Structure formats: structure tokens, C-alpha cells
Amino acid sequence: MAGPQIIPEKITSPFQLMAAWFVMLVLLTSVLLTAASKIEKPDWAAGYLVIFTSGLVLLVIGCVTLMLTKFRPHLQDGKEYAQWLKDKGRYSEGVIVKENKTASTTFRNASQSINDNLSPITNVDINVVNIFDSGDMLKALKDNGLNADVYKPNNEPYDSHSSQEAIWLGYLVNPAVACRVIKTAVKQWPHLKYVHLSNDGGGDPPDEVHDQIFLGGSTNTAKELGLKKWTPQDFGKLSEFMNWDELHARVREKYS
Asked: Are 151 and 83 in contact (CB under 8 A)?
């Protein structure tokens, strides 16, 4: 029987994975019910297959429901990562990206291109904490060619920066883009003073965390992670000409 082809490489989000499960469930259910309709003997076999199929459908739906509501609620929406990070302060181990001999030249060229052209950068997901002056941050980022969104804009905004002083940096974010985002952010919000990489810690967050930047993370979480405060001079040392190893080493200098 011909059916839809599911390409694993195309499955990049929890919802796509669940959709693949349901496609396979529909195919399996079709096979079982077709078999049941053709069985004549023994008499009980057809009824057994129908009952088994019904139970299988209920079991799969129940498992998916439990996964989304009890065991892994942050899979409901990729953008739940920011709140999840702020509340839990946990990250997955990830895989350290190694530099090759040509990486430095590649990043220098990319950085020069970014400096020369302030057209919007769309290859990184930037989220800003919902706070009383989030709009000012969005404008500052946009003026530097960076598109960003307020996280949970319908919620009541924070009225103070004192509890939201961290930057959560995805370790796969292009160093030139990361440095521009961070330097723009601290210029607009001088209270930002902690930075943490997404692959430095335990836990199991969504994979998309490693391609994202969150501005205004929990100060308490930063302290629990043992992060040291960055000074304006520290931020000033960041350069869009850095490669991954150089940027990550700079961030880790502020770990306890």
C-alpha cells in the first residue's frame, strides 16, 4: 500500500514529530481495519482487530496528551523556551562546535558583510522580556538591523529591571550576530550584566534554544548558575570579528 513518505530530516519541531506519529497511526489503523473486514474465520478475529485498533488509537492519544501536559509541557510551543529557561535555569549538554583553519576568515567576511549592510538579520530568533520599556529595546535592535519580539506580550509587564539582568545566548548563534545583539542590548539596557551559553549546564530544553538569544533573563537564575557580573569594559571587548571559540571563551571567563 502506497502512503505518504516521512523524511526524518524534515522533522525539526515537536509538532512535526507528533504529526508523523498520527500519520503512522492512521496508516496502521487503515491496515488493521482492512484486514478485519476481510477476515471470515475464526468469527472472533475481526471483532478482536476492531477492538484492538480502537484501543491503540486511544492509547496513542493518551500518551501524546500526557507528554504535552505533564511530562514535557514546554514542547507545546517552541517559544516557551524563554520562560522555561528563566524558571528552571537549565540547559542541555549540546555538542561543542569545533573551529577549522578557515573559520576565522569565514567569520571575518561574514562580520564585514554585517557591518556594511544593516538589512534585517533573520537567521537568529531574538526574544525580549516583557517589561515596561521593551518597546525601546525593540526599536534599538531594529535600528541595528535586528528583528526581535517581546516574549509573552499579553502578560503583565515587569515594572523593574532588577530581577531581569541576564542574557541567555544560544551557542549556535553566529558570533558576529551575537556580538552585535549583545552590544546593542547593553547600550540600551545597561543593567544587563550576566551572559550564559545554552550548552553549559544540565537539563533538556528544546533544541531551538541553541539558535536563539533571550534578553532579560532571570537574575536569580544567573546567580544560581554562579555567573559573574560583566562590566561595560567586558562588553566592550566583544567584537563581531570573533569566531565561535573566542566568543565562547570570553563568556566562560565569567563562570564561577
From this structure: yes
- Going from the C-alpha of 133 to that of each of 65, 129, 136, 138, 230, the distances in angstroms are 37, 10, 6, 9, 22
pTM exceeding the 0.70 threshold for the entire prediction: no
24-28, 41-45, 89-93, 200-204: least confident range:
89-93
Residue 3 lies in a domain: no
Q: Is there a single domain that holds both residue 82 and residue 32? A: no
Residue 94, Ramachandran bin (φ over 0: left; ψ between -120 and 50: alpha; else beta):
left
Q: What are residue 178's phi and psi, to 5 degrees?
A: -60, -45
Domain extent, residue 52, equals 8-71
Q: Give, in degrees to the nearest 5, the angle at Cα 131 between 88 and 138.
A: 105
Reported as type and span, the H/E element at residue 181 is helix 175-188
Express each pLDDT in 180-199 by its tens digit: 999 999 999 999 999 999 98
Residues 118 and 93 in one domain: yes
CA atoms within a 13 Å half-sphere pointing along the CA-CB vector of 253: 13
Nearest residue to 16 (alpha-carbon basis) of 7, 25, 3: 7
pLDDT in tens, 79-97: 554 555 555 444 433 433 4
Residues 151 and 84 in one domain: yes
Quick one: DSSP state of residue 74?
G
Residues 103 and 46 in one domain: no
